């Protein structure tokens, strides 16, 4: 009976364990689906800073379960962060420090598979084994040179390997203590990184300063099991990284973007490229990211992080060229060296020259900055660059200062610019490692000696310079580092093409396309400047966000203006007409005054020219008595001259005939004319009709002014006409 009960309890426990495993598998799949969806839609990530170090942060590593993050740097300390606390509580994010400190800079870190120990290696030639829970030092492993890389075997709880500057790859078995380690490789050139295969601990991937990326089999270590594509122009490999199941290997060479391999093939699957990416001055790492390792992430000397997607890569083909636009993560204020991914929490961590660590996540959280689907508003660091820093920088960590170190930033600003200015594609690769440095040469000072290339040519005279870069708008270059990268784009592109395994590609066509894209960016920058100016002038809150939208709005605005112009009747320009009429009236008035003066002068000449005797007094009297008509009604005479031209001519003839009459008859007729002049029909006609004509038809008056010569001739005979009419009437009486 007891046996049956025990069997029943055992079966229940087994069912519970299987059900828990199934639920855990479903939960992990659900989380992976959510992570994948968020990262697939990401154009940016939310970010947050962690501050606790007193100097540059050179090493990062997540624990196997993602619960902890270890960090180390120039301040010689190893800090342990609880990831969940750092994510959730902003006010209580202070990490735990390991008791044992290194004597110099820390370069690499690692966790064992059971989360019991932390391993740290650095510039003091030591690897220290720390107890994760107590922080105490358990073991010291000494070497002949600085330790640059460290990796723990995921298939064993006792093995870890190190890569040293002395050119050794060593494997330690903690079960035998500090005995002589197993030597996998021993070269004269430094090893920068080492990585155990995640599923088979017999294989190691290494990064060497002169021999590039290699794969080693510890069962037969006389020579590398596989030599990956050797790039003679850039042999120095900085980092190697397997994906979660070991089916892909990611490598990072100096001055090259990441290169992806199938570990079983020496030829690369693909090379990633972006014209702003550059790495040369410091030791950098690369990593896979995403629930299925569908992303590739690496830091750059231009202070940004680049995240490429593996979409569209055919794992059956070789030497593919991936230049699709990556997700560019901005926020660092100096060179980004280390990047690591937490698979369980979909979290990226990055660090570099600054004293901070950055967390990146596709999920918005309290106190975090940034966005997910919108790129950063400032795709570059906005602080001013330094150009003339000193060659040596001293650090004092006793002050425990976590504020930004401007002297250190200036040192690396100058280092990057000097490297770009002096490097050419023809530079010898023999001193590749001599030109490369970690974030610190020793615990107290940084030296820039040996960082620059052997060429003495300036950036304007280098044969690898990109043509016509200086003709591009400076708005496309946020600072001098971006500008110098653009100047070296041709040489960097040629180097990246060689990194694809010698695949034939037209570099000039790729360069022409890049320059075309650069000009498009310049155009967009000018449009953005125009939009900012428009916003400043008019305060428009709904400004277009892209150049295409701005061009579309401008086109719609012009079409609406042209449509409104075509529909609305054309109106005469009132202001111009008013000004024109006023000028015409003033001109008319001046001409009338001139006519009066000329008419008065003609009358005076007629008085002088009359030779007849006995009539001079009468003529003078007529001229004097009719002056009121000439002065007051000469405008009326001008306007009505066209109405009676024939009468004036007949009167002129009658006047000539009447000149032969007797003096008595002339005197009598003249007196009668003078007595009837104010009441004659001609005088009434001259006084009324012109006013009526001006009120009803102004254009007639204007056209009449054009006939000033005719009016002048008719008006000159008005005196004779009046005299002749009077004489004729008197004769009839």
From TrEMBL:
Residues 627-647 have a biased composition (Acidic residues). Residues 434-459, 655-669, 689-701, 718-733 have a biased composition (Low complexity). PROSITE patterns: WD_REPEATS_1, WD_REPEATS_2, WD_REPEATS_REGION. It comes from the Eukaryota. GO terms for biological process: negative regulation of fatty acid biosynthetic process. GO terms for cellular component: Cul4-RING E3 ubiquitin ligase complex; cytoplasm. Residues 670-685 have a biased composition (Polar residues). This is DDB1- and CUL4-associated factor 5. Transmembrane segments: none annotated. WD repeats lie at residues 50-84, 329-361. Residues 551-560 have a biased composition (Basic and acidic residues). Keywords: Repeat, WD repeat. InterPro entries: DCAF8, WD40/YVTN_repeat-like_dom_sf, WD40_repeat_CS, WD40_repeat_dom_sf, WD40_rpt. Gene3D superfamilies: YVTN repeat-like/Quinoprotein amine dehydrogenase. Residues 425-472, 541-575, 605-733 are annotated as: Disordered.
């Amino acid at each position: 009976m007891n046996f049956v009960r025990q069997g029943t309890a055992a079966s229940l426990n087994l069912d519970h364990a299987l059900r828990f495993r199934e639920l855990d598998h479903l939960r992990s799949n659900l989380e992976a689906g959510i992570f994948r969806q968020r990262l697939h839609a990401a154009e940016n990530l939310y970010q947050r800073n962690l501050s606790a170090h007193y100097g540059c942060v050179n090493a990062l590593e997540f624990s196997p379960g993602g619960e902890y993050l270890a960090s180390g740097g120039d301040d010689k300390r190893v800090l342990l962060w609880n990831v969940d606390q750092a994510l959730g509580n902003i006010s209580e994010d202070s990490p735990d420090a390991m008791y044992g400190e290194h004597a110099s800079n820390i370069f690499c870190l690692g966790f064992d598979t059971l989360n019991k120990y932390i391993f740290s290696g650095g510039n003091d030639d030591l690897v220290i084994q720390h107890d994760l829970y107590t922080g105490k030092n358990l073991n010291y492993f000494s070497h002949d040179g600085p330790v640059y890389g460290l990796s723990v075997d995921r298939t064993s709880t006792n093995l870890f390997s190190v890569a040293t500057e002395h050119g050794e790859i060593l494997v330690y078995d903690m079960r035998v203590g500090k005995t002589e380690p197993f030597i996998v490789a021993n070269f004269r050139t430094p090893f920068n990184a080492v990585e155990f295969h995640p599923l088979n601990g017999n294989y190691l991937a290494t990064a060497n300063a002169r021999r590039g990326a290699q794969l080693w089999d510890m069962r037969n270590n006389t020579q590398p099991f596989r030599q990956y594509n050797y790039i003679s122009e850039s042999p120095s490999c900085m980092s190697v990284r397997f994906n979660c199941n070991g089916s892909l290997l990611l490598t990072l060479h100096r001055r090259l973007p990441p290169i992806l391999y199938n570990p079983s093939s020496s030829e690369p699957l693909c090379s990633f490229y972006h014209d702003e990416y550059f790495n040369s001055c410091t030791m950098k790492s690369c990593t896979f990211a995403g629930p299925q390792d569908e992303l590739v992430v690496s830091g750059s000397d231009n202070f940004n992080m680049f995240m490429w997607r593996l979409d569209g890569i055919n794992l059956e083909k070789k030497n593919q060229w991936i230049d699709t636009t990556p997700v560019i993560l901005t926020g660092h204020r100096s060179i980004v060296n280390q990047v690591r991914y937490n698979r369980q929490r979909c979290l990226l961590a990055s660090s570099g020259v600054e004293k901070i660590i950055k967390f990146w996540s596709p999920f918005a959280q309290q106190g975090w900055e940034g966005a997910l689907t919108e790129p950063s508003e400032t795709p570059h660091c906005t602080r001013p660059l330094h150009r003339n820093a000193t060659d040596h920088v001293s650090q004092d960590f006793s002050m425990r200062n976590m504020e930004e170190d401007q002297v250190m930033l200036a040192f690396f600003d100058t280092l990057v610019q000097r490297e770009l200015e002096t490097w050419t594609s023809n530079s010898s690769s023999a001193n590749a490692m001599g030109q490369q440095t970690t974030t610190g040469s020793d615990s107290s000072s940084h030296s820039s000696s040996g960082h620059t290339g052997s060429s003495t040519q300036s950036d304007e005279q280098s044969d690898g310079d990109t043509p016509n870069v200086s003709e591009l708008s400076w708005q496309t270059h946020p600072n001098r580092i971006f500008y110098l990268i653009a100047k070296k784009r041709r040489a960097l592109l040629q180097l990246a093409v060689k990194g694809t395994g010698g695949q034939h590609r037209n570099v000039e066509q790729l360069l022409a396309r890049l320059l075309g894209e650069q000009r498009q960016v310049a155009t967009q920058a000018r449009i953005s400047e125009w939009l900012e100016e428009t916003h400043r002038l008019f305060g428009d809150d709904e400004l277009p966000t892209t150049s295409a939208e701005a061009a579309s709005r401008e086109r719609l605005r012009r079409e609406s203006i042209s449509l409104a112009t075509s529909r609305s009747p054309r109106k005469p320009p009132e202001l111009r007409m008013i000004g024109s009429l006023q000028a015409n009236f003033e001109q008319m008035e001046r001409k009338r005054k001139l006519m009066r003066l000329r008419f008065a002068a003609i009358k005076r000449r007629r008085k002088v020219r009359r030779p007849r005797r006995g009539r001079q007094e009468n003529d003078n009297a007529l001229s004097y008595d009719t002056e009121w008509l000439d002065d007051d009604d000469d405008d009326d005479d001008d306007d009505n001259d066209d109405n009676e031209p024939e009468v004036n001519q007949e009167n002129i003839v009658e006047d000539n005939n009447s000149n032969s009459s007797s003096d008595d008859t002339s005197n009598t007729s003249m007196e009668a004319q003078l007595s009837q002049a104010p009441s004659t029909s001609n005088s009434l006609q001259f006084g009324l009709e012109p006013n009526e004509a001006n009120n009803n038809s102004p254009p007639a008056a204007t056209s009449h002014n054009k006939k000033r010569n005719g009016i002048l001739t008719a008006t000159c005979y008005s005196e004779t006409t009046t005299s002749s009419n009077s004489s004729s009437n008197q004769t009839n009486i």
